[in-house]
Amino acid sequence: QVQLVESGGGLVHPGGSLRLSCVASGFTFSDWAVTWFRQAPGKERELVAVITPGGTKTHYADSLKGRFTVSRDDTKNLVILDVTNLKSEDTAMYYCSTGFWGQGTQVTVSP
Q1: Whole-angstrom distance, CA of residue 78 vs CA of residue 100
Q2: What is the pLDDT of residues 41-86, one digit of tens each?
Q3: What is the distance between the alpha carbons of residues 104 and 41, in angstroms, rounded to a whole number?
């Protein structure tokens, strides 16, 4: 059974940091690029970051460059999204996807 499970979200103060995790099972994870998306209430889904198979290339939304870092550990079927200097506008549900989707992890940035 194909699964992607995100975790690591929570309530954070502005300026704080979070590490979001995406763990995969049920398929050959290392063969797939992984994309992080986010969706805030009332807004369209937004691409955050992409990492290619093997982690050889990464891509970030222009507006998020410098605060978001994506990495992967294929020995653990794991993709990490590190976020620093969180802002209120980062509040959203964060999803990882390979075409399959996880259930998301909520990030809330509030004083």
Answers
A1: 15
A2: 999 999 999 999 999 999 999 988 899 999 999 999 999 999 999 9
A3: 13
